[in-house]
Design a protein that fits this description.
By secondary structure, this protein is mainly β. 15% of the residues lie in helices and 46% in strands. The chain has 5 helices and 10 strands, in the order ααββαββααββββββ. Strands 1, 2, 3, 4, 5, 6, 7, 8, 9 and 10 form a 10-stranded mixed beta sheet that branches. The longest helix is centred in the middle third of the chain and has 10 residues. The chain is elongated.
Length: 221
């Protein structure tokens, strides 16, 4: 149960989750020096950015551009795929979802350093027909917590379980990248379509094993 929930809630927050080293880059190399790791002491730390959780996020037109420098996450839209939960139990529902990401990306010398903390919250209802065969609310709560999430599951009076879940993940890693037209290809094989317009950059994962489903916007410092 826990792994399925975490996939659903953070499928697109790999900026915040499974592929932390990958992110759109600038002009594929060539800068005046090595990549600098995020330094909040000199530039001020990034603020928490709201990430909308939707079944389908708005599209954007890739346009490429140079993104060398320091960028902070300012908004995002993560696409939720509920199919795995529905396959496990058709009566499961998720409500009151919310997510934020506090992160910074520094580009230079063909490398990208991404530092982030992502937090997501949701209410999960598991009907009795699924909760009781699984061992009830106490077992469900333990299963969710076993993966590191915070969870409180209570009986709804009919054998079903209402679970309040909070999940947080963070990382700080460096990866290489190259630019191919309007697409960034990172060293671990993921690709991102991107567009820089003024001091704003938007990107969307386009191929590879990252689970970063959705689009994210960063603002240059």
């Amino acid at each position: 149960m826990r792994s399925t929930f975490s996939f659903v809630l953070f499928a697109s927050l790999a900026a915040c989750s499974s592929s932390p080293t990958t992110n759109p880059g600038n002009d594929g190399g060539g800068s005046d020096g090595p990549t600098q790791k995020s330094d909040s002491s000199t530039t001020g730390g990034p603020s928490a950015a709201t990430v909308d959780l939707k079944e389908s996020c708005p599209t954007f037109t890739p346009c490429g551009g140079s993104v060398e420098g320091t960028w902070d996450y300012t908004s995002g839209c993560a696409e939720l795929d509920l199919s795995q939960l529905k396959q496990a139990c058709s009566g499961i529902t998720i409500s009151d979802t919310s997510a934020t990401v506090t992160g910074r990306v520094v580009f230079g010398a063909g490398q990208v350093n991404r530092t982030y903390t992502a937090t997501g919250q949701a209410k999960l209802f598991v009907p009795a027909v699924c909760a009781q065969p699984a061992g009830g609310c106490t077992v469900l709560q333990s299963e969710i917590q076993s993966g590191g999430d915070t969870a409180t599951c209570t009986d709804d009076g009919n054998g079903g379980c209402n679970c309040n879940i909070t999940s947080t993940t963070s990382d700080d890693k460096i990866d290489s990248y190259t630019v191919q037209g309007d697409t960034i290809v990172t060293g671990d094989g993921n690709s991102y379509d991107f567009c820089v317009s003024g001091g704003s950059m938007t990107y969307r994962h386009s191929s590879g094993d990252s689970v970063e489903h959705g689009s994210f916007t960063l603002t240059k410092r």
